[in-house]
Design a protein that fits this description.
By secondary structure, this protein is an all-alpha fold. It has one domain (1-6, 14-309). The protein contains 10 helices and no strands. It has helices spanning 2-34, 40-62, 70-96, 101-109, 111-123, 129-150, 161-179, 186-208, 217-269, 275-314. α4 (101-109) runs parallel beside α7 (161-179) and α5 runs antiparallel to α6 (129-150).
Length: 315
């Protein structure tokens, strides 16, 4: 019976991981397709506002937020400002500026490389040589991909700072979530994040004069799709998988998002996908693998040292 439960758990995690990659990839494609005739902020605000109303109603009716304290609410609101508002706004700005969807996804996918650099200062752990090698290889991969698409891109070179900003926002949000005790369910966490994002977007969209939505059917279809898949499915699975498999494995899942998005972008949008681009993807993948493998080998040793120190303290 225990073995069957273990197999079922692995199967559920694998299906959730595949769904996460597909739904997260769609978040890069929607703005590229749906914002041709609509301001990105307009699509983004109406992606979040109706969803916030629905989620708040579900949480209130189900009383899922019972027991949530004010500090929990403030903590999750801060995480939501980084992980959803900051991340989504930067991604939409990147795509609206002409940055290819695959390139945007790839820059976001180098999170494990950046995390490795932050391991020492934030957690007091030493970055190993293999991790530094992975950083160099991954950075070379990102450079090749971006360079291969510059000639055919309409984006100004400064526009590539947007996907980098998106990556930083998601890293900050993820670290804040991991460093805090998880006291809210995935539903409540998602509701807080979506609501905070919706309120922030209403403010900046109103200031920009882009709050009023068009009456076209295609716009509202894009709103529904982006609310269900890149938001509900992708973010819900993100926080669920973060608790289930940990930050290292979750970061590893972000890299398949890049080639998935690039392939879809080439097929649907006609974005360039050259040999140099593919080599860049391969190098970035190798760098990510090097960092994750090194991190996986380091963790048991670190845990062993902590357990030994605890045993000494007890004695």
């Amino acid at each position: 019976m225990g073995k069957q439960i273990g197999v079922l758990r692995v199967g559920v995690t694998a299906l959730a991981s595949a769904a996460f990659v597909a739904s997260w990839s769609s978040g890069f494609l929607v703005p590229a397709i749906a914002t041709v005739d609509v301001a990105p902020l307009t699509l983004l605000v109406w992606r979040f506002v109706p969803l916030a109303v629905v989620l708040l109603a579900i949480v209130l009716l189900s009383r899922a937020a019972n027991g949530v304290t004010a500090p929990d609410l403030r903590r999750q609101a801060l995480i939501g400002l980084f992980a959803q508002f900051g991340y989504c706004t930067a991604v939409y700005a990147a795509v609206a500026s002409g940055v290819a969807t695959g390139t945007t996804a790839l820059i976001d996918a180098v999170q494990p490389l950046v995390v490795a650099m932050l391991v020492g200062p934030l957690l007091g752990l030493k970055v190993r040589g293999a991790q530094w090698a992975g950083l160099v290889v991954g950075a070379a991969g990102v450079f090749l991909v971006v360079r291969s698409q510059l000639d055919d891109s309409t984006a100004h070179p400064a526009a590539y700072l947007w996907p980098a900003a998106a990556m930083v926002c998601l890293i900050v949000g993820t670290f804040l979530q991991r460093r805090s005790e998880p006291r809210t369910s995935t539903l409540v966490t998602l509701t807080i994040h979506v609501t905070v994002t919706a309120l922030a977007l209403i403010l900046i969209t109103a200031i920009a004069g882009q709050l009023m939505p068009p009456a076209s059917v295609s716009f509202w279809l894009a709103v529904v799709f982006s609310a269900v898949f890149p938001t509900l499915a992708a973010y819900g699975l993100y926080w669920w998988l973060l608790r289930r498999v940990g930050i290292t494995a979750l970061n590893a899942l972000l890299f398949p998002v890049a080639p998935t998005t690039a392939a879809a972008g080439a097929f649907i949008l006609g974005e360039p996908l050259t040999i140099v681009t593919l080599i860049g993807f391969a190098l970035c993948g190798a760098g990510v693998v090097a960092v994750l493998v090194s991190e996986a080998r380091t963790r048991p040793a670190a845990q062993s040292r902590v357990q030994s120190a605890s045993a000494v303290d007890v004695r």
